[in-house]
Design goal:
320 residues, alpha/beta, Rossmann fold, Dihydrodipicolinate Reductase, domain 2, 5-stranded mixed beta sheet, 11 strands, 22% strand
Length: 320
């Protein structure tokens, strides 16, 4: 049977707040989705590269920022906030009042932490979900898989190398939030004891692929079971982050294990080596599509129930 793509009336209306690298890359990904339709791309500067690209693509834009949502009717059903943590605290109140579901790509932690490989269903019932950080989306699934396959994770050290052109001012402004939110997520999902998170920015002339080294201090464990759990996690991540790759095999030593993960981006708006930006967008897109599909199923079930009730009263739909 041939699959049938949903028509425009069945797609979820989404907005994007923040027109920088992350917001613009996310826009291109949304436009490719059969489940989503971007109805507003809001920022502050109509002359910015992101705004210019959105207009070229025929997407409705606004330079009124959060006012595009607060001073108008409910223009969308779901919004991606790709601004900064200190802004999202205010934005969240607007979205809640307007009954717009929010996927927060900042480390603000207003809503519960969400990592699609672990708890993607969270988006179905929560008004606001937080995408942790790029480092969190990269490391939390692996750490959780390791924790579930052994007695305990007594300690975890994470070191991530990213390119200079993949780190914007918002990330630098939020660097303390980045460390705190990533560490909190690793503790929350992996029950790790001692946690160390470090972010290194390569010199400007270098453009390395986002690379993360994870070093585990483990309790009792079976190396074969741990390695299998890690590989299964890699496959699950690749279902929505195609460029997510475990480099080589996990390296076991007495009492511990280390491994390296690289994330190559899809190259939609940001360069392929900037996997740190790509992974959080892929994760956010995965959640929005999950919500869109489940919402459409719920609407179909509801319509089916109405028709069944009418049929009980003798109503039959007119056929051609």
């Amino acid at each position: 049977m041939n699959s049938v793509l949903p028509n425009e009336s069945e797609t979820l209306r989404v907005g994007i707040l923040g027109t920088g690298k992350i917001g613009t890359d996310l826009l291109i990904k949304v436009l490719r989705s059969p489940h989503l339709k971007c109805v507003i791309f809001a920022g502050r500067n109509l002359e910015s590269p992101g705004m210019q690209r959105a207009q070229e693509l025929g997407v409705p834009v606004s330079d009124r920022g959060i006012l595009a949502f607060s001073e108008s009717r409910q223009i969308c059903d779901l919004v991606f906030d790709a601004t900064a943590a200190h802004f999202h605290n205010e934005h969240a109140q607007v979205f809640l009042k307007k009954r717009i579901k929010a996927i927060d790509l900042t480390p603000a932690k207003v809503g519960p932490l969400c990592v699609p490989a672990i708890n993607e269903d969270l988006v179905l019932n929560e008004a606001n979900v937080n995408m942790v950080t790029c480092g969190g989306q990269t490391t939390v699934p692996i750490a959780a898989a390791v924790n579930q396959s052994c007695f305990s994770v007594r300690g975890l050290r994470v070191h991530t190398l990213v390119s200079h052109d993949s780190i914007g001012q918002a990330t630098l402004d939020n660097i303390d939030d980045y460390y705190a939110t990533t560490s909190h997520a690793l503790q929350h999902f992996a029950s790790a004891g001692d946690i160390s998170v470090d972010l290194e920015v390569a010199p400007q002339e270098q453009q390395p692929i986002m690379t993360t080294r994870m070093e585990f201090d483990l309790g009792m464990h079976n190396p074969g079971m741990v390695a299998q759990a890690v590989r299964e996690c890699e496959q699950k991540m690749q279902s929505y982050v195609p460029g997510y790759t475990l480099v080589g095999e996990p390296d076991f030593s007495e009492g511990g294990m280390s491994l390296t993960v690289q994330v190559r981006g899809m190259g939609d708006w940001i360069p392929e080596h900037a996997g740190n930006l790509d992974i959080i967008n892929c994760a956010a897109l995965n959640l929005a599509e999950k919500y869109a599909r489940e919402r459409r199923r719920a609407e179909s079930r509801s319509l089916g129930g109405v028709l069944a009730s009418l049929a009980n009263f003798g109503f039959r739909p007119r056929t051609a």
